[in-house]
Amino acid sequence: MSKRVLAFDFGASSGRSILGTLENGRITLKEIHRFSNDPVTVNGTFYWDVLRLFHEIKQGLLKAKREGGFDSIGIDTWGVDFGLLDKNGVLLENPVHYRDKRNSGMADEAAKLISKQEMYGLTGIQFMDFNTAFQLLSIKKNRPELLERAESLLFMPDLFAYFLTGNKVSEYSIATTSQLVDINTREWSGTMLEKLGLPRRIFERIVPAGSVTGYLSDDICEELGLDKVPVTAVCGHDTQSAITAVPSEEKDFAFISSGTWSLFGTETDAPIVNERSYAFNVTNEGGYGYSTAFLKNICGLWLIQESRRQWMREGKEFSYAELEKAALGEKPFACFIDPDSSEFGIPGDLPTRIADYCRRTGQYVPVTVGETVRCIYESLAMKYRAVFEGIEECTGKKYGHINVVGGGTKDTLLCGMTAESCGVPVFAGPIEATVMGNVAIQFIGCGEIADVAEARKIIAGSESLKKYVPENTNAWNAAYKTYKSVTAVK
Q1: Residue 68 contacts by C-beta under 8 Å, 6 or more apart in sequence?
Q2: Which residues contact 346 (CB under 8 A, 6 or more apart)?
Q3: In sequence order, what are the residues at sequence separation of 6 or more whose Cβ sits closer than 8 angstroms to the Cβ of residue 474?
Q4: pLDDT tens for residues 199-221?
Q5: Which residue, 10, 197, 254, 410, is most buried by CB atoms nearer than 10 A?
Q6: With contact defined as beta carbons under 8 Å apart, do 70 and 4 qualify?
């Protein structure tokens, strides 16, 4: 009988439990449990509801049992966030959301203790206020008693695995999102910890993706009636699981992992850390087999999602299809924003902030829903081009196409605009790239798949990709000049 593996995939707004089966050279997925992921604000702090999420993991395990069982478990989540445990292994408080206001300005605070150049040289990681290093610095500055009580730090996928097994480790890919891992030794950076004044004792042993980190505990097995199934540390950072599933048979490829965030980059054998990559603020995250994902984090479909939530708060209900249709009915290239401008990363009234940005930069100010959505889509596509050019400059390579993977592949308007803006064909798929990468790493661990190259070949054969070809490059080239001029205005 073919082996079956169980993937838990957590995004910023939802989670799923999915069974993966490998038969006749094809991976098939079956979603057996889906649930919302609803952060909660309490007394001004934005928390993840981690105990409810763990309850949903248990429901996924029970449903998988009823489906005939499974041979392995893998968990992937978003990056940077973590839970702190006391000396008895008890969670000290719910993990805080990376969008919480405590993180604002903390990268600059860290730079007072260790220069950004030195930080980048040590870790190769892009500067973002919510990186784990800066979250911990915020705790040290404002809640030092919490760090004094902490004995262990576990990133979100490792925390869930600990709840299941009782074992505490840090998987490599998720650890690198912290900006605390030495890019050369692949261990915790003593210099970073010392300069930021962070306690070494809380950081657990780093293990490579694909490691079996434990088995379901006796308590979990008794509660749910399960056998002692292994828990595999897949690429715990969902981006790295998605990159594992990019269906490219070429060694050099460009990708966008498209969802709430857009992660645009390429995969390299070794980190690229130099003055050019530092100036571009590009990241070198760890991947499967100690590969490097040389990529840029871009604010992605969050802009659409949060704008839609604002319109819903105002009593205006729109489906995503209706928003896309409204955008198509508006004049192209009327106005642009920088998607990564700081005011767009915080929950709230994004349509008003977009209008304010356009007014401040002397552009046409969007009024209708369609104008706002079109501004977002075209600005994202232009941002992709800017990052694409930067990636090619840093690597010294040219990429003949872009693979778009993840939930954003369903957004046909953005995929088409990406091809137009970047001037190369776009291949969209698989939609379930993160889960595909999660289960593929488990199958490698089970000995069912030889390596990542074989996994990518299998995934390419398991999915049908949609191709988008640029057809209006002259108009997009002209508009790109306008985009660069307005986004350069501070």
Answers
A1: 4
A2: 99, 101
A3: none
A4: 999 999 999 999 999 999 999 99
A5: 254
A6: yes
Distance, CA of 255 to CA of 260 (rounded, Å): 16
What Rg, from alpha-carbon coordinates, does the chain have? 22
Distance CA 231, CA 309 (A): 36
Is the pLDDT at 303 greater than 80? The verdict is yes
Which pair of structure tokens corresponds to residue 140?
């040290």
CB 10 within 8 A of CB 4: no
The helix/strand/coil state of 257 is strand
Annotated active-site positions, please?
A: 238
Whole-angstrom distance, CA of residue 86 vs CA of residue 178: 20
Residue identified by tokens 């969902």 is 238
pLDDT digits (tens, 9 = 90+) for 431-468: 999 999 999 999 999 999 999 999 999 999 988 899 99
CA dist., res. 328 & res. 326, Å (int): 6
**pLDDT value for 489:** 62
What is d(CA 269, CA 289) in angstroms, rounded to the nearest whole number? Answer: 10
Residue 46, beta-bridge partner list: 41
Q: Residue 62 is encoded by which pair of tokens?
A: 């029970």
CA distance 159 to 154: 5
CB neighbourhood size of 67 (10 A): 14
Tokens of 3: 């082996």
Q: What is the rounded CA–CA span in Å between residue 361 and residue 489? A: 7
Cis check for the bond before 430: say yes or no (omega within 30 of 0).
yes
d(CA 427, CA 409): 9
Q: What are phi and psi of 406, to 5 degrees?
A: 100, -175
Structure tokens at 394: 């840093």
CA distances from 414 to 73, 328, 407 (A): 34, 11, 12
User: Residue 490 — pLDDT band, cuts 50, 70, 90?
Assistant: very low
* Token pair for 437: 């990468």
Count other Cβ atoms within 10 Å, centred on residue 389: 13
The helix-helix angle for 369-395 and 473-487 (nearest 10°) equals 90
Please state whether beta strands 72-76 and 45-47 pair in parallel, antiparallel, or not at all (unpaired): unpaired
Instruction: Name the token pair of 489.
Output: 């205005």
Q: How far is CA 486 from CA 187, 385, 481, in A?
A: 41, 15, 9
Q: CA–CA separation, 487 vs 307, rounded Å? A: 20
Rounded-to-integer distance, Cα 293 and Cα 227, Å: 36
Q: Which of 404, 396, 454 is nearest to 426 (CA)?
A: 404
- Residue 351 CA to residue 353 CA, distance in Å, equals 5
- Residue recorded with tokens 């395990």: 61
pTM value is 0.91
Quick one: which H or E segment has residue 275? helix 275-280
